[in-house]
Amino acid sequence: MIIKKIFIDANVASHPETERISRQLDLPVEQVDDPVSIYQWINSADDPVSRGKQVLYLTRNKGGFLKSCPGTREYTCCDYQILHIASFCTMDCAYCILQSYFHPPLLQFFVNREELDTELSGLFEKKEISRVGTGEYTDSLIWERWTDLTDYLVTRFALQDKAVLELKTKTVNIERLKALNHRRKTILAWSLNTPVVMQSEERRTASLDARLTAAARCQKWGYPLAFHFDPMIIYNGCETDYRRVVNQLFQRISAENIVWISLGTFRFMPALKPVIAQRFPDSKIAYGEFVTGLDNKMRYFKPLRIALYRQMVGWIRDAAPDVTIYFCMEDNEVWEKSIGWVPVRQGGLGRLLDKSAIKICDLIP
């Protein structure tokens, strides 16, 4: 843990969750009436991203917890719902979009659980399948050491049969999951990459072996699993390395317990490139063969993406012919040339993922 200080929004200073987290961390505390002073202090650093990871701001989520995935119409979206429980991350990855997404970057946790609970009640009352995840703006399991958020969420989702919760992580913070009655309504998901990428572009994350070991333990505890090869980085020899990771995955995990596997190559807004250059001077990931995509993000030249995707799909299919594979934010041409079909012809990607969740997580359609 690198957190050195807690800032508390004065409006939630007496909230039970604020008091409990403060006791758990036992760090210097400063109460603020307005976060502007925190923003200014973070932005004054030579490396605002690093400073933003060293403090925790406890506040209220004023904009609602449930949000639709911020996809773009130019690329196929999975119709995911984001559960916005916190922002930013204590780990540090060169490719992380959050470095340039938040202004300024600040690790913050939302304590107003009573409003979160109300929103979840509304979600569960709907007569439709929902796929919900907490890993869009933060890592889902970095909060385990000082909150009971996961205990609450897993237990809450276990009481209904229409929605599934996906907890995506690069950590191995799984110990408390063992004792929970999850009823297969929570998916434990890991971001995977090659050891080369993990060692050169990720700081303070668990190793590949540690992640797969954690996944195997969660499998033993009855949890459905998911894996995300995203962002895949293209470099000399990457094909051999990614194939080895796929082999390691299926040596440890049974295909029948995998809800889905996503594939996505490195893409970034141009503003991220100077941040990577400053914070990760040895990184070469932003200097590949990129073109500007329809969403104004820099993306690998399409034939390069398709070539790697086709190989990955083949390797996964060899090990698990029936597992659900999807691409994160790619167009119809990439789908057609990489996997041989286009989601719209199958009722849409969201519907396909719903079917997989129904099958593996025992949801009731």
Compile the SSE list and pairings:
Layout: E1 5-9, H1 16-25, E2 29-32, H2 36-43, H3 48-52, E3 55-59, E4 66-68, E5 81-83, E6 86-87, E7 92-93, H4 98-101, E8 108-110, H5 113-125, E9 130-133, H6 149-157, E10 163-169, E11 186-191, H7 195-201, E12 202-203, H8 208-220, E13 225-232, H9 238-252, E14 258-265, E15 267-268, H10 272-279, E16 290-292, E17 298-300, H11 302-319, E18 325-327, H12 332-339, H13 349-361
Parallel strand pairs: 1-2, 1-3, 3-8, 5-9, 9-10, 10-11, 11-13, 13-14, 14-18
Antiparallel strand pairs: 4-5, 6-8, 7-12, 15-17, 16-17
Q: Count of DSSP E strands?
A: 18
Structural class: alpha/beta
Radius of gyration: 20 Å
Q: Largest sheet, described in full? A: 8 strands, mixed
Strand order of the largest sheet: 4-5-9-10-11-13-14-18
The termini sit apart by 41 Å
Question: What is the CATH C-level name?
Answer: Alpha Beta
Query: What overall form do the CA principal axes indicate?
Result: globular
Query: How many individual helices?
Result: 13
What helical percentage do the residues reach?
25-40%
